[in-house]
Amino acid sequence: MVLLVNETTFTKEVLESSVPVLVNFEAPWCGLCRIIHPLLSQFQTQCGNELKLVGVNADQNFKLSNTYRLKSLPTLLLIEKGIVKQKLEGFRSRDDLRSALEEIKLTYTSHQKIDIAEEVKSQESGVMR
User: Fold this and answer.
1) 30: annotated active-site residue
2) Which of 14, 33, 70, 79 is catalytic?
3) To the nearest whole percent, how much of the chain has pLDDT over 70?
4) Which residues, 6+ apart, have CB-to-CB distance to 74 below 8 Å?
5) Catalytic residue chosen out of the listed positions 4, 19, 30, 100
6) 33 is catalytic
7) Are residues 14 and 6 in contact, defined by beta-carbon separation less than 8 angstroms?
8) How many CB atoms lie within 10 A of CB 21?
């Protein structure tokens, strides 16, 4: 479940977050927003507590839309310690989005490191036998 934030909760949930936050600016009328939702849900599951995913209804939060100079929807902002680290907009395809999300996941989570560590452990235990 994606946490929905608005102009009132944005500072606390996003700018003051202890973990990086991927902000999904979307609108109910946006067809592409609905299409990418499953990819974002999968991304959130894979990142666990190391990255937070939040949604913002751009139509209802006009000040935020103007502050971050949205040109199109959906627009994804990766915000770390209150600073925009990456802006993703104008997706050409699902694969483009998937690649961008994968890059974010590798940069901001330790899942890759954990997988490698577990693989080394299993190889070492196999050698000892």
Assistant:
1) yes
2) 33
3) 84
4) 24, 25, 26, 30, 32, 33, 36, 89, 91
5) 30
6) yes
7) no
8) 24
71-99 pLDDT tens trace: 999 999 999 999 999 999 988 888 889 99
**Cross-strand bridge partners of residue 3:** 54
- Percent of the chain exceeding pLDDT 90 equals 73
* Residues near 36 by beta carbon (within 8 Å), at least 6 away in sequence: 74, 91, 94, 97
Q: What is the pTM of this model?
A: 0.83
Other beta carbons within 10 Å of 50: 13
Residue 117, pLDDT > 50, answer: no
- Name the residue type at position 7: E
